[in-house]
Amino acid sequence: MSETPSTRFSMIHLTSSEGQVPSPRANITHPVVAKRISFYKSGDPQFGGVKVVVNPRSFKTFDALLDNLSRKVPLPFGVRNISTPRGRHSITRLEELEDGESYLCSHNRKVLPVDLDKARRRPRPWLSSRSISTHVHLSSAAASVPTTAPGMLRAPRRLVVFRNGDPKTRRVVLLNRRVTQTFETFLQYLTQVMQCPVAKLYATDGRKVPSLQAVILSSGAVVAAGREPFKPGNYDIQKYLLPARLPGISHRVYRKGKPVLEKRKSGNWKVSVITSDFPNAGTSSQVYIVLYGQYRSSVPIYLYGRDGARFQDGHKDIFTITVGDIGKPFKIRIGHTNSGCSPSWHCKGIELQNMNSGEKFYIPVQRWLAQEQEDGEICREFPILSKGQPVLPVTTYQVHITTGELWNAGTVANVYLSIYGEKGDTGSRRLFRSKSALKFLRGQTDTFFLEAVNLGNLCKIVIGHDGLGQGNGWFLEDVVVRDPTTNHEYAFFCHRWLDEGEDDGRIVREIYARDNTIFSMRKKLELKRKEIWAAESWKFTKGNTLQFYNKLTGGFVRLHPDGMVDAVGEQTDRYGIFDVIFNKGNICIFQSHEMRHLSLALDNNVPSGGALTELRVLYQPNRCALLESALCPGHTLVVDRHGKIADEASVGYSELSKEFLVFVKGIFLNSAVVILATSLCQALCLQPGGTCSGAGNQSEQSYWRVHRVSSGICMFESVKNARMYLRIKDGRCNGTGTGDTDCHFKIKRNLENASISLESLKNPGLFVGLQPDGQAKPVIYTKDENVCFYPRVIQFGRENPMGMSATPSQGEDEIHVSKHQKEVPPEPKARRPTLLSTEEESRHSYSTETLQAEDKWRVLVLTGDTGTQANVTLWVYGDEGVTGPISLTKESPEHLFLPGQQDEFQVVLRSIGEIYKIRIGHDGTSGQPEWSLQRVTMEHMKNKKTLHFDANARLSRNHANGDVVCELPVMKEGEPVFPLVRYHVDVYTGQLKQAETESEVYLCLYGERGDSGLRLLHRSNMPVRFQRGQIDAFQIEAVSLGNLQKVLLHCEASDKSQYWYCEKVIIREPDTASESIFTCERWIPFMSQGLMHSEIELYCQGEN
């Protein structure tokens, strides 16, 4: 008892790896050839290994070694096979073992490799931290031992072990290296100590303890059992492990100057539990209570007897319990184990009487403790009323738990949470009932309600799972706990795995609260930026060739010979290609690939090497990059919707106008080695059984070698496992291909997120996709992230694998583009020699012109009785993309759109597939903003295909809904391909002070079939729009969008007094009873990442 932690740890480190000191006499008088060998468990990197000294005296036969290892290495059927670390060669004789080497143990011939470096680095269980709920009493001698962090406790060295069902039989054991080599070794040691077979361990509340780590994280006591189930009992450990005071409970202060030594006395309590008197109120489950007092809390005390059934309808059950000196009680926790044929229980009340002082307490309960009743809780807390003491309120904490977005991040295990505050803790609670139908899915936020006596200011949580079920590993992003009494939110940022096979192998984590959620959000954004830069920084290596794509304009950044910059270039435009000629951290110089004397700069036309050409690359959480001047911080490259350079203040689309997606040229050249990343830290990898998973690490196991079959078509061979190719065959996607046509994939570039998708050439329409657990499977392309891969080049390939004359920039231009782009052969580069003959060159030029002509359309716009001088814009939607905005203008705009006049325009449409609708409108400027639109006709200039759009619409702020744009569907056989829908939009302004605004508010709807465009919410049912606490009703007419997915809100406020607080948006279709709810609950504009944002995307409630 007098040993300090430092003394006891030093004693542990004095023992050898085998727990005994080798005899020196054997080395002197009888020289023996001894081999020191390490043995690890097949497929288990968390097993720390066993070191064994093998010599002719210790093991006379190979079977004797197997029997010895079976007691040390936990395997279902013992150790039956020993192999080399990679599992290629089996060991069958002692002579084959080599001194100082490592080997794998398995119970059959199949051996799973293990990362030995990771296994060797794994700390022993007693060196890990544990929950503060484990009370440890440190002597004054230990006060001088330095700690790593405030509140962090060392692991327990003593453990109280009770015999199952017999609390009077108990032993105190010391956890040291000899008895905790493995969990199996520990059970064998307990068998000797308890003098009875020990096969299983339980916590004192009946939960199974499956591992050594769980032993350390227990409350300092375990129940040892054989094959029988857990038997409840009063397993009181307080006289063996004296607990510390509860957080926030002050020490007694005595008036006299002499210190008084406080004595701990055992307390005898009479507990009377009253079950309600209506039918089925009783329970068959085991009931327990926990008392919380001024000094400490008791352990769970099970209330059971031997004289018949307990807790029946209308009965009053009386018990006498003994606990330590807990001081003045202030709350009680009561619950049951949810066992038996009818576990549901309705408790009427509890009576407590201190047998020493005679003091009595009554706790009215009147609640169900049942998973199918009320809130589903089987454990509840109630305050204990004492004279002269304030009553602590019962608080229902709102707990938001976010599962990470990594593949296979979700879990099916049972998750437990304990919340700690200055007035105690909630105890371990199973998170049973979520607002979501399925809990803890990848990328999902689950909301739970946890009722407890108010804890005051929260300080930490302990969260973990029981490790049960297939795929029990869990990636926890964060936890936010809201206290409704103070309306304060406590953020607990995790961003780590709770998985025995990932990270540090822990399935329980102790997380401390941040000061506020704003700090937590900043930390999350900072971490996200760092992770994105780590994943994308390879693109800016010196010598790489890049392109910059802007989603607002749908084009690539170009640097013209005259030094002007725009963002409307095609993918094949030679002026839109840049070389990285300088790189220092995230500061780069991007030189024009076509004109070596020019570089991209915010000041335009700056010679290479100039200070203004140094641009800082700043990545955003959406994988888009900002290009900021290194010389003038805050000055970024901004373009307007026409692709021209603009000031940030004059651009409405504040984010899209300055965000660029970065593409690297020449990724899929022949023999290149690439990683197909599925997230910031995961990649598509080939698993030992030949299956493919997107949840692999970005290591050599995830390297793929590119074999280019033809332009835009490649095969992917595993670098780690030669001659194993990625393939889709017979409805399966795996890595067992042999290089035949099943392994041919068309590379589809996704411009919206700088990713690629792999389409099977043999099975058109089937893509390599991922399930939520990360396993690969063939899927249909839906533009979801499960078909998106982010390529990263490990080694660039050869430029001309087939003797072709393609230049490096042409190598990937023939890859199919998923949106906005047409497969156009590259233009021949100026001042670059070509191997094509004159005849071939002319034929190449002719095919290019023909293909471009096929995209030309004649647009005829017929104006009605009212013309307009405003700027008219057109959008064209197809089933594969959208082209727009297209400005309908000519050299003499004053002669356009006159009353009764038909104006003709020629437009070039990119590859958008079958056209199904158009949107046309004006910007409301000029002296004549009103416009009567009669009809729009589109005629293909080559095949003469004609599309008619009858409008008969008056586009004016002063008529109808005040819309200045309209959508028109394509007509087939007199019927529209998709109907026009008038969406009813209810906008809720919040109740907060100054929530109202006079600013213009815009809304854009997004659905399965595109979007409605950004519409001004102009005509409301209320006389004054967007007033505090008001619901404004609007109507938006658009071609049916299918199921709505999200909306975009835009509010331009001139000053802070015009900021607007939006609570939510509800959208209904008139012919359906369903409604889509989009929760906002924030101010617009808002500050994020140091920038002011005037728009926000809201996703439909129930979707992430």
UniProtKB/TrEMBL annotation:
Start-end of Basic and acidic residues biased regions: 813-830
Domain Doublecortin: 35-117, 157-236
Recorded GO CC terms: axoneme; photoreceptor connecting cilium; photoreceptor inner segment; photoreceptor outer segment
Chain ranges of the PLAT domain: 267-383, 395-512, 855-969, 981-1098
Subunit structure: Interacts (via the doublecortin domains) with microtubules. Interacts with RP1L1. Interacts with MAK.
Record region (Disordered): 800-849
Highest taxon in the source lineage: Eukaryota
SMART domains in alphabetical order: DCX, LH2
Function: Microtubule-associated protein regulating the stability and length of the microtubule-based axoneme of photoreceptors. Required for the differentiation of photoreceptor cells, it plays a role in the organization of the outer segment of rod and cone photoreceptors ensuring the correct orientation and higher-order stacking of outer segment disks along the photoreceptor axoneme.
Protein source organism: Cricetulus griseus (Chinese hamster)
Gene coding for it: LOC113833778
Protein name stated in the entry: Oxygen-regulated protein 1
Subcellular location: Cell projection, Cilium, Photoreceptor outer segment; Cytoplasm, Cytoskeleton, Cilium axoneme
One record GO biological process: visual perception
Main subcellular location of this protein, as a coarse class: other
This protein's UniProt keywords: Cell projection, Cilium, Cilium biogenesis/degradation, Cytoplasm, Cytoskeleton, Repeat, Sensory transduction, Vision
